Amino acid sequence: MKVGGVPYRAIFTAGDGVDVRVIDQTLLPHRFETIRLETAADAARAIRDMVVRGAPLIGATAAYGVALAMRADPSDASLQQSLALLASTRPTAVNLRWALDAAGTLLRPLPPGARADAAYDFAARLCEEDVSRNRGIGEHGLAIFQEIARSKGSGASRPINVMTHCNAGWLATVDWGTATAPVYLAHDEGVRIHVWVRETRPRFQGAGLTAWELGQHGVPHTLVSDSAAGHLLSRGKVDLVIVGTDRTTAAGDVANKVGTYPLALAARDNAVPFYVAAPSPSIDWTIEDGANIPIEERDPEEITRVWGVDEDGVERRVRVTPEGTRAANYAFDVTPRRLVTGLVTERGVCAAERGALGKLFGLS
């Protein structure tokens, strides 16, 4: 996707192909900067501090973190240490474990001298596969959008109204995004589309990231508070909801940014389709019940303080609670499969249940 008309990916290599760079998402939307990752510790810090975020991008960053470690020291000890370090960064997104397991399986049998090149090749291949998967999700989601447009008579005077949650855009992946991929394809193909962007407390990924990237691409959108979703759904102002996922169980339960579950409840109560864009690496085939997904608890200051730019253009972090207020910061919730209209994967759209998922991926 483009930033100021210039194509970017959320993670990329420069120069000789070993210079790993990412967009610093903690600075958006007020500043656009890329930073260089030089070590596995840099990659781990970027994941933990949400310089990069979104399950697919976390997996890609972890893969490059292993490559950086192998360039510095390709020994068995270094490999094991880097895998353990990166695995400890975020507990909920299954892409992290998936990428590290695959990297470890590939690299352990190799002689140390061959590991760095193999690790870089693996990370680059993982990124290209992520882009392809997201494009596939976009194409399958586009078909849903087009069918809704036909059924509702959307045309020159009436756009399709889509509601999102958090950021499942290209900033959360290598490119295209998951939930936004069909939005971008629809927009590019001339389908009239409007996106209701939920702000997404406490870190405001909707307000700061989704609104920013939609604006860069020219997609019409309106920012609303998280608590306004029920009102909009009940007034018929939303045609469908589509969100991303950090981990989807083999039976179709969906862990995503906290606030997804009440959004799904409101959508069901108002008979609005609720779709989840689920690339295959985000599916955890080892878990059936969403209650078994570990839910990350983050720094309470993400709730008690906010960051932004004041009227003088100065970046500030300010406290919004009484001093000493205790806060609990749950980063994710689980939406049960019964509330999910369908899972949009790179292989197609299916019901949120084990049989349908297994059939789609040749596991049943």
Stretches where pLDDT falls below 50 for ≥5 residues?
none
The helical percent reads: 25-40%
Provide the gyration radius in Å.
20 Å
Shape: globular
Strand order of the largest sheet: 8-7-6-9-12-19-20
Main sheet makeup: 7 strands, mixed
State the separation between the terminal residues, measured CA to CA.
36 Å
Q: Count every helix, treating DSSP H or I runs of 4 or more residues as helices.
A: 11
Beta percentage is: 15-25%
Number of strands: 20
Assign the structural class, choosing from mainly alpha, mainly beta, alpha/beta, alpha+beta, or little secondary structure: alpha/beta
Summarize model confidence as the mean pLDDT.
95
Explain the overall architecture.
This protein has 364 residues and is α/β, with parallel strands linked by helices. The protein has 11 helices and 20 strands. The chain has a 7-stranded mixed sheet with strand order 8-7-6-9-12-19-20, sandwiched between helices. It has a 4-stranded mixed sheet with strand order 13-10-11-18, with helices on one face. Helix 2 (55-72) runs antiparallel to helix 5 (112-152), helix 3 packs antiparallel against helix 4 (94-107) and helix 5 crosses helix 6 (181-188). The mean pLDDT is 95.
